Amino acid sequence: MIKEVVSVGLAVDECLRVKKNVLQPERLSGDEKRICIVTGTHGDELEGQYVCYELNRMIQEHKENLKGIVEIYPALNPLGVDSISRGIPMFDLDMNRIFPGDEKGAVAEHVAARIIEDIAGADLCIDIHASNIFLREIPQARINVNTARQLLPFARRLNLDFVWIHAAATVLESTLAHSLNSIQVPTVVVEMGVGMRITEEFCHQLTDGIFCVMKDLGVWDGEVAKPKTPIISQDGEVGFVNAEAPGIFVPCVEHWRNVQKGQRIGRILNSLDGTVEQEVCAPIHGMLFTLREYPVVSCGSLIARVLGGDFE
Amino acid sequence: MKKECIYTLKKQYRDDLNIYGYRFGQGEKAACIVGSIRGNEVQQLYICSQLVKSLKRLEENGAIVGRNEVMVIPSVNHSSMNISKRFWATDNTDINRMFPGYDAGETTQRIAAGLFDAIQGYQYGIQFPSFYLPGDFVPHVRMMETGFQSHALANQFGMPYVVIRKPKPIDTTTLNYNWQIWNTNAFSLYTSATDRIDRDSARQAVACVLRFLTQMGILRYTSHSGYLASVIREEELFNIKTGVSGIYQRYANPGEEIHQGQILASVIDPLEGEELARVLSPTDGIIFFAHSAPLVMEGTIVFKIIERLHE
């Protein structure tokens, strides 16, 4: 059943509408668990669109296995998705920096408040992101260290390759995930793939993981895949590689592969004079879990992240 | 006056971004003024250019007091300004959400770090930023409530209003907030415009900065003593929203005294031209902020009112 979460009139004959699809058993006992799948906060992150489609399709094909309530919100920022805009068009602030919103505030803050109000009370929320157009990410959960104890049991079961437990930062207190975790809705942020693209393999992987968690919660009783055991990392074991010169980055290693400390992972090239501006090398021994996708780099552009250690 | 490049970002497809600082006087780091950080802050750029011009003449006339140094940085992000973008040209990030910066981090973190390093240690920091909602303001001084802010100092600008903002998490990465945390008395000055030049409010802003520097004993300059500011807490401003969307017509401007029931604006059906709604003032007061775009969405904040204040 398609429902409207919030609607705001636009200037000429149109409304901004955030919608969700509520999937539930024919008969409700009142004790059903509720899980929310949200995505599209950043309009240029599309991996979650395919996950939402697959969840919808697979649940509806075997509705008899649905024992709880699944709510699918494909586009929290529908104007952004439509206009290929990361943020909310005509609004300065990143939508994922204005939660929990404010009913008395600007339009975007009002929309944020209504989204929080709608999700409140859920037993689990999965917030799907897709990096941005610049970087490719392996399927991973990102968890604030302060919520790790509560969220790790869910994150382990999502069929992801990696769980990154990162340090808390004041500025992240205005994310959707932080706001929902603060009102006792366990919310796991998933990052995978690259902006403006759909990586089918990753989407299927996460969809399988969501079914595992649904089964754990008693929302689904059909067959599910055995989830992968993710690598779990604390912040300190991650090495960052940034461009030290502008130019064109061309990688020479594959994403999600082991690299040795000092090993070349790519070069930054000067297309005007044919020189190599920088040999880009791994800062530590480990696994390349983030790799630059967009070739043009400025000084400081993130090229890669390496998870320290030995991995198969 | 000494012009120096305080930070350079090398580029391959365009000229390098060079951020310039203009130093006046020598000695103690007394005051630093930062202009445009976003690419559409043309008014802020203009104000700082006028400040450089004024301070150059004042310095030549021996008006800098004792061993005081004043630095003005008119423009931080002309890479974006030159191509009409508000945020960083390549990744659309906002330099004013990157402070204190990180010199080994991403591009805008590095720019923020380079700028922040150059403007450390000044006793007073003055920034000309712009607001996240598009519209027109009454000229005012804005401060973050960090526990280090001083209303009394803000009053020395002689602007009509001083606004205290309780910082939200997103504010903790702005220049104003970090300057205060790193022991600089930081003030943000807002005039009536951003992406156009309003000469009157720019002239007022230049006068306010020169007045402040005089009051702080940094400059020898005779000027009108300015306003004794009304101090307002941002959360006490009364927001008026539109209930409908359409073409917006405003009848009242920032700084005007208004009365309960007064018609402030109307919204017109964008296809049929009929008036859909009138925006009435629910209170007496002074208009602090007014929406300026010709269209409105439902629920847009079109006015912020200082309640029960008279001219």
Write a short abstract of this structure.
The complex is a heterodimer of chains A (312) and B (311). Chain A has 312 residues and is α/β, with parallel strands linked by helices. Chain A is built from 6 helices and 17 strands.
pLDDT averaged over residues of chain B? 95
Largest sheet of chain B: 9 strands, mixed
Question: How much is the radius of gyration of chain A in Å?
Answer: 20 Å
Q: N- to C-terminal separation of chain A?
A: 44 Å
Oligomer class: heterodimer
Radius of gyration of chain B: 20 Å
Query: Total strand count of chain A, please?
Result: 17
CATH homologous superfamily heading of the largest domain in chain A: Zn peptidases
Which structural class do the helices and strands of chain A define?
alpha/beta
> Under the CATH scheme, which architecture of the largest domain in chain B would be assigned?
3-Layer(aba) Sandwich
Proportion of residues in helical segments of chain B = 10-25%
**Shape summary of chain B:** globular
Poorly predicted ranges of chain B (pLDDT <50, ≥5 residues)? none
List keywords for this structure.
heterodimer; A: 312 residues; alpha/beta; Aminopeptidase; OB fold (Dihydrolipoamide Acetyltransferase, E2P); 2 domains; 13-stranded mixed β-sheet; four-stranded antiparallel β-sheet; 6 helices; B: 311 residues; nine-stranded mixed β-sheet; five-stranded antiparallel β-sheet; 18 strands; 20% helix; globular
SSE blueprint:
The complex is a heterodimer of chains A (312) and B (311).
Chain A: E1 2-9, E2 15-23, E3 34-39, H1 47-61, E4 69-73, H2 78-82, H3 107-119, E5 124-129, E6 135-144, H4 148-156, E7 162-166, H5 176-182, E8 187-193, H6 200-217, E9 231-234, E10 238-242, E11 247-251, E12 258-259, E13 264-269, E14 276-281, E15 286-292, E16 296-297, E17 302-308
Helix pairs in contact in A: 1-6
Chain B: E1 2-9, E2 17-24, E3 28-36, H1 42-60, E4 68-75, H2 78-81, H3 107-118, E5 124-127, E6 136-137, E7 140-144, H4 151-154, E8 161-165, H5 175-181, E9 185-190, H6 199-215, E10 230-233, E11 238-241, E12 246-250, E13 257-258, E14 263-268, E15 275-280, E16 285-290, E17 295-296, E18 301-307
Parallel strand pairs in B: 3-4, 3-5, 5-9, 7-8, 8-10
Antiparallel strand pairs in B: 1-2, 2-4, 6-16, 7-9, 11-18, 12-14, 12-17, 13-16, 14-15, 16-18
Helix pairs in contact in B: 1-6
